[in-house]
Amino acid sequence: MSLADKLTRENIQQLVPYASARRSMTGGNIWLNANESPYANEYELDCSVLNRYPDFQPKGLIQSYAAYAGVKPSQVLAGRGADEAIELLIRTFCEDDEQILICPPTYGMYAISAQTCNIDCKKVPTKADFSLDIDAIQAAKDNVKVVFICSPNNPTGTLVSHQQIEQVLEIFKDQAIVAVDEAYIEYAMDTSVASWIEKYDNLAVLRTMSKAFGLAGLRCGYTLANENIIQAMSKVIPPYPVSWPVAQIATQALSESGLALMQQQKAQVLEQKQRIVDALARYDYVYEQIESHSNFIMFRSEQKKALFDTLVQAGILIRDYSSQVLLDNSLRISVGSKEETDALLAVMDEFKG
Ligand SMILES: *Cc1c(COP(=O)(O)O)cnc(C)c1O
């Protein structure tokens, strides 16, 4: 055992780090495995300010986030992606002996973030149709301090109904923060619960620029919540969470022309998504696809391994979720550009299983 291993905290010794698409899968030339946008956009940078530390919360950026989300600037916290907000919530609100609660199958970073903080994670699986099991959540509520609900959910693409989100907020009122992860909300904007932060003082909404805005490489996201939650998280966030280049680029992406570009690219993605949905419905080797409210599609095939390997051989990377709870035989495809979809469907049309 190396000295570093011996000195590492016990919970970190046991930790298997998050197998992000970029970390666990290399090669390929068509990446349909991380729910990114296929489009890289151009931005302008003013470097004349780089000798100075950035503002704690760059004003223009906060105003842009607030205007876009329809909340007050004091109800926004900008940081390095939704992933940072997940960890901040745990570090801000969980005592050592308290827990988070998640409803798998869902985004993997909630459990991993908890583990890095040595906080236990209660797992209450969804029903088979991926709706929440409200009775089971109620039964598991003791000692829970932060609840993560993802809608549209990654990796299933399903929505959690407003009625169920309200039930969870009620179960945990006066007890726990309920974080609704809206990483994919641009694909289902009318289902956002951002306006509920006025009504529920235990609600936090997580957003990101990484998905529909096509800025995964920038690392920027934001939390929406009442001012008291924002102020508590502001105590824990590092002193300069948003660099000047990040603030400049994200602000441009949220400008009128930036928003129009996002909408246009979203429409293109949805067009390609429909082609994939139609194709999956035709293939004999696909026995189910889950209705998606996002830029990715999950489906089931008995031949999942052969299909996955055939796509890898063609340089196309998708994601295998078949080992996860309720996801037998499931693969997930992130929707790419027209050319990428052409290449994907050319291989899938020929695949015989
Ligand atoms: C991609 C993703 C995130 C991470 O977003 P970043 O802002 O890139 O850290 C968070 N939640 C869900 C559900 C995601 O799919």
From TrEMBL:
EC number from the UniProt entry: 2.6.1.9
InterPro entries (alphabetical): Aminotrans_II_pyridoxalP_BS (IPR001917), Aminotransferase_I/II_large (IPR004839), HisP_aminotrans (IPR005861), PyrdxlP-dep_Trfase (IPR015424), PyrdxlP-dep_Trfase_major (IPR015421), PyrdxlP-dep_Trfase_small (IPR015422)
Source organism superkingdom: Bacteria
Cofactor: pyridoxal 5'-phosphate
Catalytic activity: L-histidinol phosphate + 2-oxoglutarate = 3-(imidazol-4-yl)-2-oxopropyl phosphate + L-glutamate
A GO MF label: histidinol-phosphate transaminase activity
Domain Aminotransferase class I/classII large: 42-346
Record pathway: Amino-acid biosynthesis; L-histidine biosynthesis; L-histidine from 5-phospho-alpha-D-ribose 1-diphosphate: step 7/9
UniProt entry keywords in alphabetical sequence: Amino-acid biosynthesis, Aminotransferase, Histidine biosynthesis, Pyridoxal phosphate, Transferase
Subunit structure of this chain's protein: Homodimer.
Family statement drawn from the similarity comment of this UniProt entry: Belongs to the class-II pyridoxal-phosphate-dependent aminotransferase family. Histidinol-phosphate aminotransferase subfamily.
Protein name, entry field: Histidinol-phosphate aminotransferase
Organism from which the protein derives: Catenovulum agarivorans DS-2
